[in-house]
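Hi Q.,

Before the meeting this afternoon, I wanted you to have the uridine-5'-diphosphate prediction in hand. No need to reply - just skim if you have a minute. The sequence and ligand are here:
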Amino acid sequence: MTTPLSKTVEPTVSDSLPFSPDSIGSSLNAPRVLFLDHTGALGGAELYLLDLVRQYPGDCRVLLFDDGPFATRLENENISTRVLQGSSQLLNVRKDGGIGTALTASLGLLQLVGPVAREAQNADVIFANSQKAAIVASLAGHWARRPVVWSLHDILTADHFSRLNRWAAVTAANWGVTHLLANSKATEDAFKTSGGRTPSTVVYNGIDADDFPPLAPDRIQSLRMELDVPLNVPVAGVFSRLAPWKGQAVLLQALPAVPDLHALFVGDALFDGDTQYVDELKSLARDLGVVDRVHFAGFRSDIPALMQAVDVVAHTSTSPEPFGRVIVEGMLAKRPVVATRAGGAMEIVTHGRTGLLVSAGDASELGRALSHLLSHPEAAERMAAAGHADARERFALDGMVQSISDLLRRVVDEETELNPK
Ligand code: UDP
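Predicted structure with the ligand bound:
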């Protein structure tokens, strides 16, 4: 698990839209949901949850273990949100942590079980959106006698998590999670390989295609000027938080072999262990002699527009990506995508038809794929059009919300049959 950048957090409570106690069966028969997440940072999992709660057809409330931009976005959207102050032990646990950190983290987690169980009394189901949230939910669900659905956004392999961490996640799931929602087949497979026995369903992230209206050429030009990217050069963009496994370094290493190509990095380090990485990237760019062709934009909220300001959207993760929202977003922006041949990316891209797949961490192969797309603009355009059509069909946001709402309804009905109140 990753640790949000540390900062002083005071608990904040927004009670503007509490659950309506008598609303079971209302709002298209959608159950009342308590959504749980451990972080206030805005990673892909939190952007997914934001989309889900915005469109969820029933009553819901979001409970977070930490404050931050995610909480602010939820509150700005008038979504009932409460931030529980987490224990410092809990918020300091690292994904590669050993037994000592695990024990202190467990104490921190236990402190959250009571408050979550109390909130869950007003819901029909608890929906955990992160591993720490799932561990707390597995205990709180027993206490409150509510089913728990865990939306798993991580590939539980040694690439990403320590053995202890995987054991804790799978044990919590097997013991206290009613149903697992995996964001890809790759995520579901890794869960099962790690010993997970919870019944599971794969539901891909849905992305709202309406957020990607085509941009006028003058708007694209002004975006490039704002980013200090020359107007008449080819640009490949990586739109991910800055973290070593997201592979921004691989694109840098590909640049010397692709003359004139510029790289645009959009995203920031979201978690503690990753803050050095941006300096490492800058020094690598200097060493490779490509510093004039590299641009850092920091974290941005206008991804659909920025993707249209580049010629190719590159996904460069060096470890299997659990899903890869940015790949779908690149397709919706009608840009050709090059992605790493691993994990969820392989379920999104059909190589040669809707994008190109390259071996993880292979800068030469990435360079060849980028050169190919830039020197064959008609083929690149065909690929982008096929990707666009495919993404609209397979990754629609309303389809995702419908599938999840149906699943939650089923889980609640089955629980009621098993344990009538
Ligand atoms: N993103 C963003 N601003 C940035 C960089 C990324 O909003 O500056 C978004 C991006 O558009 C995508 C999400 O962050 O929706 C990343 O999700 P993904 O599944 O690609 O990776 P994760 O962060 O979940 O590992």
